[in-house]
């Protein structure tokens, strides 16, 4: 018993387990243990809640070695929305001590994204300053969560200040950064501001991408200009850009709102057969919207197309199809 007491010199608590897992040397003769991102996230969560930030540093290094990269849950122990928290100060202390390169940069970017989700924009900006001062590989993608968060909240002027901060730090403003502004303006149907952003992109020689066009289609639909949305879609096809499922959804929703029931069925049918998942999304969404509007005849045509092509239906659509299409057909026969 005395030998056992000498061996166990400290209580086995969560902090001790985390430290043991992150520092133990692997047995070369043993089978390698495959760890998961969830396991690492859970360990960091426990370490963060217990204030063991040294273990967090080790876990951030180790997970990259295991190809278990950071996720949106990595810093989930940060939950408060206060402008100051001791946990953030501890993280600012240990992050510069993580392995240089990708490990350190991605840890910073993951933490910035988490802070933006908590609406702690000022804290996220502090981390940007830390990366600038430490020369930790700051890129345009590092700023994206901040710009996205601000534009979503319609804090456009503040978002433009972030753009100026990028320029002052010699970080190029990319298409994605501008797309956040476009999406915000297009969602509000603000054609004038949308045009200004497009002009800035053109002046800087930036080529619109899929999300740029998606924003423009959204803007056209918000302005009740379905014809313009169709023109933009055709332009996307001409330049060879893939169309997002959401882009089709913008058009379908607006056509339904305008009462263009025959036209929206024709629009969706024109894309059938090119992408099975797109077919399921478009046809399923259209059928649901038509049923809600009590446009049963058009809905039945859409559901028949789904059945013929063997496409997956939701439970509600399947029940409607079996009740209103199959049963009616059997009674007629």
Automatic annotation (TrEMBL):
PPR repeats lie at residues 139-173, 174-208, 209-243. It holds the Pfam family PPR. Keywords: Repeat. PROSITE patterns: PPR. InterPro entries: PPR_rpt, TPR-like_helical_dom_sf. NCBIfam families: PPR. Belongs to the PPR family. P subfamily. This is Pentacotripeptide-repeat region of PRORP domain-containing protein.
